[in-house]
Amino acid sequence: MTAQELQALIASGLNCEHVEVDGDGRHWQAVIVSAEFAGMRAVQRHQRVYATLGARMHTDEVHALSMKTFTPEEWAKTPH
């Protein structure tokens, strides 16, 4: 799986304003901005992203995914 493929999977299952994915093919880092995260704790946000990946998390297609998740308001306040 490529970074672009993983980014597309996340974006197709979650209404995102911004998605960045980087990694080595097994270990990934993502920055995800979505209004759907409003009112959610970090663990709930991560579970929501994992749900978009479904079986890929269980079949080792995506071995590890480290995430930074933001609402659009949080993202606007974050230097990037």
Automatic annotation (TrEMBL):
A Pfam family annotated for this UniProt entry: BolA
Top-rank taxon, per record: Bacteria
Coiled coil segments of this chain: none
Protein family membership: Belongs to the BolA/IbaG family.
Protein name, as recorded: BolA family transcriptional regulator
Organism: Ramlibacter pallidus
Organism ancestry: Bacteria, Pseudomonadati, Pseudomonadota, Betaproteobacteria, Burkholderiales
